## 1
Amino acid sequence: MVGQDNGIIDLSAPISQVEMALDNYAYFPYEGLESLQLALLTLQKKTCSSSFPSIYQSRLSSLVSAVDQLLANGAPYFQSYHNAFLSAADSLFQLAVGCQFSIDQSMQLHNLLSLDRPCWVVVTSLIQEAVTSPVYINYQAKYDAGKEGENRSIDEYLSLFSGVGQVSFQLDIAEGVVKRGRFLLLTVQSLSWLQTRFPMLDWRIDSVNEEESLKRLCELSFLPLFQHTTMQKDVRYRLLALYEERLKRIGFQPFSEVFSPNFECIEQPDRLVPQKSQMMGMEGVEDTTYFPMRYGGSMYICASHRVGAHSKSSFSCKEDLGYDFLPYFLYEIETPYGPLVFDKTECLGLFFVSAGGLELFEDTFWFDVNEGVSAQVILSSPFLLTADNSAFCLLPTSVSDLLVVKQGSRYFALPYLSVREVEAVCSKMRASNPLIKNIWLSRFNTPLLEPWLLDFRFALGARKGTVKNKSMYPVKKGYYSVRFHGKTLWIEADLVFALTSYQRPLEIAYLNQNKLCFWLFIVHDGYCFDKVLLTSIDNEEQGSRSESNTFTMYLDQLGEAVVLHLTSCEWFVSLPDEHYEADFSMFNEWMGNKKSICFPLSDLEKGAVVLNKKNYLSFVASAECWQPPSLF
């Protein structure tokens, strides 16, 4: 089909990409469908001009939606879907090329896009199906290296299976070149597909794996149950205990099990961390101590080199084990610079300081907890301020009660005025932050702040943005027409993570180079969003309001998340026919103050603005000032 492209628009590259992705779907279903999705979106962008008929645009959008649906279901391979996609794509290619030459030629090809054709019947029915959780199946495949015709090694099979699901190998016999064993594979693919794709192996089904689906059900249900305020107390406690016990069993493991047996340089070996099967049997390095640490809701494997009691020994992050959904008891302390919380499992305890109990060392006060452990006393905070917006600094002589906390490989002692225990669940932060280690959520959905006490240069490096799990969220159709800054913005529905009534953002004050700054964030559904795009009417100092914010929209796609405040919002099945501006490269002029950032959509005068998957990253990239400046 590529060779037939002689039109005005060069379609060779996107057509070739679609064909290669369709071919790859038969061998690596998920990878093939993801490539097909991107290739179809590229083709859609290339052919979005008015010279292409509306029926072409409609069918192309239907094919994209069908691919999205399969991805949401875990990307299972079906021959009927593959044949339908091949036929539907070829029909679109013929019309796309034909309509560049003459209207008459394109009209003759319209019958290729008729909904009565079998390929479009399959595509349409796939779109209309309800999204279901992927069904994972445990398979066993016997392997015999000496079997006639077997020309693949164990490593080659492991590499191939890694693109299909979770795989491991159990060796039964190893005598010279003779190796026999079993591959254990967890995947959504069917037995017939595996037998066709890997005919030299003897396949059988062990069981339908319900653990993954059950784990996701528990994860999604735990926070709403934890924050349920009307349920009877005894019923709530029983349900929470059952959920927590099941979550620990199917989703967590002792930290020591991450490492190879008999490895001893581990702190908190019995502490539960999220399971990550490919991390089992990790080999540690001598003279290095490994310990778990929570940052932004995720548990990390960290390593440190102990140098001395008063030294700033550094640590490094080795691996992200995943999000921690369990509830924990925290110490909530009231300090002169605001309330703070710390996980009790990371605290040495509460201590009373007698007169002269602090030691001065290199302009820093230290508290000797016990032999070999000294904690740096935090007398001031550059980022947490008192109500009068002035930084607070304690005098050593006024310190009497201390909470000792360990972060990384260092200990810190925080003076406090009062203390209480609270139970909370950690939210999932969308990006790294030099100020905040974790944002916790109480039973009443109140955000609780756990700060970094370490200098940020010793904290974890920048984290990659999180990507929306396609198997947990249905594909959304249509567009939202919203009013934002007095301008109409059309937003592709699949970009929308959630739409709620107006949620006012929370803010944390800090000093940066003697300048008062604010970090804005909103917590929704256990996620902490810190890219909040405000309108001028969010500013408390705004005198008169011609409009008021009614909705808050959370966008999440391609590892980037952002929050918009809207004055109106309506859903439509498709875009109306009119001119749309989709280039966000001009949005480089930002205006802002401590509580609002004004996005100059009013600069665009040609029609409405459309925001979709093709320009979403450009939209986010225009917002560098969302990120708080580094403190160091």
## 2
Amino acid sequence: MTGKIRTTNTLQVYICSRSIYYMKQKTGLVCLILLMCIAFVDTRAQFIVDSLSTRLTQKNLPPEERVTTMALLARAKSITDIKSAMRIAEKALSLSRQLPDARYQALVYTHLVFLHFINEEMPLAHKASDSALWYADKTSDRRIKGFAWFRKGWLQDIQAFDHEAMATYLQALKYLEGTDAYIYQSFVYYNMAGTYAAWDDLVNEKKYALLALQTARQSGDADELASAYQAMATWYHYSYKKQPEKRALLDSALFYNKTGIQLFAEHGDHIIIQSTLGVIALNTADLYEEYFPAKYKDTAWHYLQIALNASLRTRQLSVLSACYAMMSDYEIAKGNYKKAEELLLTGISVFQSYAVDNPRSMAQFMEGLSKLYEKMGNPTAALKYYKQFYSQHQLLYDADKLAITNRLEAQYQSEKKEAALKTLRHTAALNRKLNYLYISLAIASIIALLFIVRFFQLRLKATLHQQKLLENENAAASLHARLKEEEAMRLQAEQQLLKERQERLQKELLAGSLQVEQKNELLQTLQKKIEENKNGGAVLKQINHIIDQDKRIDDTQASYKADFDNIHPEFFEKLKEKSSNTLSRLDLKHCSYISLGLTNKEIAQRLGVAPKSILMARYRIKLKLGLGKEDDLDEYIGRVK
């Protein structure tokens, strides 16, 4: 229709997928029930605030119930007085920290998610969601766990992260299904049905819409029933659009919409979310307008009036703008352009009286007026409103760009947090596995030790018994065996003595070779200085002669070093092999000193360097040998030796 300012079937989509929630308390040990959203405040909301405030005045109210009541009060006051709501929530959080059960902190943080969202503090809303999940993980209450995961999914949903929200909703259902938290389950199913409707997946949309209706009936909550009726009506409508030959689908859509409207007529005083009535009534009017002949216009107008009254009472701007648009369409169809103009201008006036920035609805109004004046033959007015339409459209475009930017930033932060949480979970899982492994090893070690002790006990007993028999049977054989044993021990002692003498000889030869090498370096330095000062005369020649004699003596000492290599030829080869032949001559010398058992200070004195240099040399040798930080270099060289 000309001048229509609403998008096609926009209100058929599940509005509760972007909605807010309320909680109410059952009797017993803090039975937490999901608070559905109150889009705008009416007298019922004030009644809830007064009731909760009165409850808090009770002096004997247990701290657990006080925390729950304060959380509910903060949620109820959030629409009219967000600052007061935040103060109450902070007090509830402070009190919850004094309670041993973590579910109360999880509950308060879950409400803070919504409060920060209302206060346009999305980073704080995400932080509160993370805290809610963290504390929910510390409690065994499956309802609180499900509620915390649901709130995270809701936060993702309102930011248009549909796939992430769907995965989170499924996680929430893992905790909720099998409990009596039907109102929680119904709302999760309702949101999932809405997401599948947006994805045009009729099979899953029907599945979750039916589950929403089933759990809503089990909960007995009128708000949930109204939402479930709207979900079922939406599925039948979408199904009829794809199969227009099946008229029964359209009849079923009308049936569920009318059932929802009748529910409001009978139990309106018990329904908190009054905005649902406006959606259902508008959808019903839309069905009559789109699929029924002109004689049903009065019926459509009837439901349109219901939707308009509900939207005015709840300040539901999207329904309000759609109602004025449909009314103006009716008047345009009749040729009553003046009446259509009055309706559109009235709608604009209502929007302006609310002092709410809504570029999308205002742009639609301006576009409708522009087209209407063009049809009336008033190009000046048409151009005027078209310019205003363009201006509002630009504001809407800028707002959309900002929303996209914020959404991308939120997605980045969310992915960053998910990666960090994944790492933490992986580390925690690994630590748990290690703990189990350590426990298993300890148990296995104890069992093995017991078996070994028992084995040796039995073996000792058998040996003693056998010795006794042998002593009784043949004393001479026993004496002979004892003599042989003593002989073996003597041979072993001699071998041990020989080994000790051999090791001592190795050390002496190694020490001598190192001293010779150190002396050679000194003599070479001295001889170099002599060569640089050849004019020194006879004394220098005599010194040079002495050095040559000393070198000849060193050749003899070199043979001793060869003897050391013959005694223990594998020492240097093993070190070179371990280091991939990266050890320098000085490194090997250092290792030799270590094998002799010299301290760092003694090695520094022999090499003529500072003790700090010895520490650095030891560090380099460890690296070249591929030793770890905890490995002891002295022990390693002792094993090689």
## 3
Amino acid sequence: MKSNFVKPSKSFIRMAGLLAILSTAFQPGAVAEENPKTDAADYVAGEIVVSSTRTDEKLKNIPRKVEVITSKDIEALNPADATELLKKTAAVDVIEYPGLLSGVSMRGFKPNYGSYYSAQYVAYLLDGRPLGTNNLSTVDMNMIDHVEVIKGPSSALYGSNGMAGTINFITKKSQGPIKGKVSAGYGSFGTYEGSATIGGSINDRMDFDLGVRYFNETEDYKFGKNTLIANPSSELLPDKNAKGNNTMENTAYSTNSESLRLGYRLSDNFRIDVRGSVFNAPSVHTAGDIFGSSSPGVKDVFRKTADLTLSGSVGNHSIKFLPYWSENESRNLKTDTSGETYAYYNGRNKEYGFQLQDAIKLGEHRLTAGIDYNTATYQTGRQSAPGVSIAPYSPDGKTANLGVFAESSLKLMGGKLVVTPGVRYDMTSFNMLETPLLSGVDTTKEHDSFFSPSLAFQYTFVPGLKTHASIGKAFVSPTALQKAGEYLDSYGYLWRGNSDLKPETSRTWDVGLTWSDEKHGLKADVTYYDTAWDDFITSKYVVDTTSYYTYVNAASAKLRGIEFEVGYDFGSRVDYHYSLRCFASYTHLFEATETDTTGETPMTFVRNGLGSFGVEYDDFKFFSARLSARYLGSVYQTNYYTSYRPTLKDGVLEFDPSLVIDATVGFALNRQNRIDLTVQNLLDENYAEKDGYPMPGRSYNVRYTVAF
């Protein structure tokens, strides 16, 4: 078959060359100790600090359900993107299509597969500001230090989208001696990959982080042949495609990314950090479904982002100003009879804004308040032939939001009781934009506002044992096309925005019990949650003096579940002469039902159970290993393939659970050189996160890393 190899960008080559030179320049002159020994003081990082409350705070003082994916996890797994990392580490449901498209489901909320026209129920953040994309497959983990997964409503801090929770990607901010690493790997399906990072202090005022990554899967992947914990019908989960083999055709792709951060200390109290990154995925092959009802294709995916952070302290004030910008573009490609390739459809999302906040320390208490401003514009275009533009399906749209928030952290009873009340008020404007080749676009601007209160508390009975609880409201704003104006689409149908349309809203409360001992690697938590989800937005055809399509609030849902998390490091018993950590998490939905005018039905695309568990070992000398499993519970999905299923004709079908096991072993030759072998889907499970699109079966990868 034709290779999907894509030549790396010139900037990628230049930075890779620079890193190769630096890897030599900063190589220590002394011979490294062959068998370095790590003791407890080296291994135990101490109290974990997270920024999920928009300021740095010790994890033990945050009265919410927070999971932290550490830098050690990221280094051990070496994930290609955020999708792969979250699948293997977090108690969230990641739904992925072949061809760089994925989204996340939390606590029973429906996932978004990267669409800007569909509601997004999980807020994606980068260093606390909007990530700028709904597609987690475009988030490179090469320059990410750790990830904070916050369960429950977060609109009181971050505004729209955070009904289910928040995922905050925290970038590397290296200081001190300059260090780095370079790695190269090869694996199944003709996969080549390479990455390099370097960072540290240039002098006593300036520091930096620089990273590049290249990934190329040159062959179509094969899906699995086994089902470990279920016996699904071949109509639900075929073991062969329409051509009679288990190859998922047209799934090869290539990506490259570059990222740079420069930091400068302005004074003893203030510093500035400038960050930019580029993600390129040209000629991504997109698979049709396994039944052959949809055609394969090719697309380009590009992403650019930049931000500036000015932070510092004056007296008891900690101030941060963060302007940001991002642009995402996806182009679906065709090739005409002359061999010329053109974009028959393209979508571009531009987003920019700023955050301004002040965290005021009042004794043991803290008050954080600030202003957020965000503008997002989504544009589409179509071509019928190279250079021949035609009317897009819908007009361009724009939303602008101004949010004012405040949250306090009150430490009472000598710190045993922590209370965090919070409020936020968002004011949003919506309007369609004049769009080339599309007539009759009404650009009238509409406005809306929403008030988001929240309250959380925790009480520590004895050191390490606490109870936590929270309650909050959250919302997801409609899109500009749903709220404002009217237009004739490319088929001649009239669409009208509904000025009375309300945001989708939720009210969630949870309560839990946590036992933790960071020194001994122990954490156990059980949390129960209950959500009332109202005002689903859906389209409606109206027959009046003029017939038209519009949008209405038409349904509600009830979500109830329980989350378990436990982890323990047996190495703590021997003062960490080695580490042997066992971990497990499981989420079970007691109820996930949707109610509309037709009655009550099970929620689709939401799993009734989701779990991950495993064990990892590190002797701190030569050998490390990790074995982990991901449990995907049963799920209801819309049956789009009734004509391909002889007996299963119902509009909604229940799909069986599956179990995916991964393994990694690593060998340290010395302090600088390391070899890792990874086997993904070890037992060759045949499973699909989305009906009709089976995921890769067993695959192997070997990676060589040089640290300097």
## 4
Amino acid sequence: MLLQFRNITRGWIATIIVGLVGLATVLFLIPNSGFNIGGSNAVANVGGRDITPPELTREMELTLRGERANGNNISQQEAVDAGLHLRLLEGMINRVAMYVYADKVGVSASDLMVANRIREIPAVHNAVTGAFDETSYEAFLQQMRYTQPEFERDVRGDLTTQMLIQSLATGIRAPSSFGALTYAFDSETRVISVAEAPASAVGTIPQPNDAQVQAFYEDNEQALRLPEFRALTLVYARPSDFAGRVEVPEARIREEFDARVATLTQPERRTYVRITATSETQANDIAARLNRGESAAAVAQALGLQVTRGENQTQAEVPDDAVGAAVFSARVRGPAVAARASLSPFVVVRVESSTPAVTPTYAEHRDELRNAIAADEAHDLLSSAISAFEEARAGGASLADAARANGLPTVTIAAVEAGGRDQQGRPVEALAGSEQVLSVAFQTAEGEATDFTPAGDADVIAGVDRIIPASVRPLAEVRAELVEGWIQRERARRLRELGEQITAAVNGGQTLAQAAAANRARVVVASRTLDRRSAMQGLPQGLASQTFGAAEGAAISEVGRAGVLVAVVEHINRPDISAADPQILEATRTYAERPCLQQALQAGAPPYCGVSTSVMEAIQGEIVSSANPRRNEAVITSVYRASNATDEEGQ
């Protein structure tokens, strides 16, 4: 499915993402050249199913929307220049290939599964009731730029793919040799000594000259690039801004109270037990036994009768009118009462508790009614103000003037980028929670305004007063930063050379102590035994990985913030696999079947994992290949033109 859809539905779609983790890796299994699809406007065809330019454009727009929400302001042209459309197309080819394969083998998610999955999307729920709402669903589809059949087709495809992957992955088993590999990896230790040369060992780094600063500036232009900014005028249409202007006469409030008093009245409610009797004599006997202290359940069981309970019911809610009259005439927690019933010969009732009736008073409901009336009239005033505002704009008034003339509040924003931050990198408070307004504003031309867009409790128009194009920060503005960056780079280079000198001396026959002393360094760790986990935790990451990749006796170096570290691998201790407990080897074998978690690998966990993922990648690669994906290079080049493309390339 789509990146933006996954973000919105991350609670349930995460399961599908895990199942589809292998799909991304098969991108490289598919040739980039492909074949042109003669006579077709599709960008690709997979197993007879077309992928159209609007579908790919939608995928790209939703991806860029997600990037902008994370503060990465990337225009569509920049994305095309970077090849994003091609990467997204490969992902779509992979998904469609799985859909085609599912159709071929006759596997499909049911309508009920699709409906249940869609109902799990928060955006399709009514904000008040929390239930699925057709209007909210339609709005969600419009936001995603999907038709209902398209969206439900893709949801069905993703669910079906998940089912396929789960069935294909069942029973995958890592070989027994993987247990020995994992055990050997996890149990190996190394004895190392480490020397450190501080940053001061390379002396003071001189200031760069103008030519060096200019060259460093040119090398880092991309990092110094400023995104496009826009100056906006926001116009807010909120009923609350008009509520204070409404005068509600007391007589109007009293009239509303009189009209609602019946619905505001809360009748008395009672909780009771009832036993159905077959005769008056039996009813009187039941009442006597209850009044002597026997429980209703015990009496009913002894006589083979039915006992029921009414919880917090009004008289109108009691199923039998005659029983209702008996319940509400009996004394609360008083004697049991026998009475004739309409639906059975006789009943016995005993009232356990009562919630008194509540009669509304004007005073307690006055403010509530006044605010409700004011809110209704505020909506009417707002509608009139919006109509007058639109007429003023049509007559030539500016956005701000038309708003002020009709009481609509405005906010002016000097500059904001697509992620909602100003030119100093701070979030623009006026746009908090208004991502959709900002998104539409960045699709609107300079001098134009958006339509009203919902944002919280308001509808907002954004007028684009000025577009400040993307640019590179001028050299004069960033010179101090560049000088500091150049000095840091030069210091790192000199430290790297110093580390290479020390390692060369050690590899040439000197002891670490001798080589360190000759190069203004000192030994800080002497002959310490480390396993992979303790190395990851106690050494810089680069040095830790080199330590367990180097041969015995080898010297290695790593530049850090404080200076350069040089380590010597003095001895390697490898475990005796033949003496290992078979149960431990089996436990480590099963580790190989688990997915590879990046956090665990970074902490020093064995890399022999992900067997099931690797097998699934191979299976999915075959599925994609058998779908014979064909790319229409002519259409791709024509629709998604690079900014440096010639006229011939775009035709």
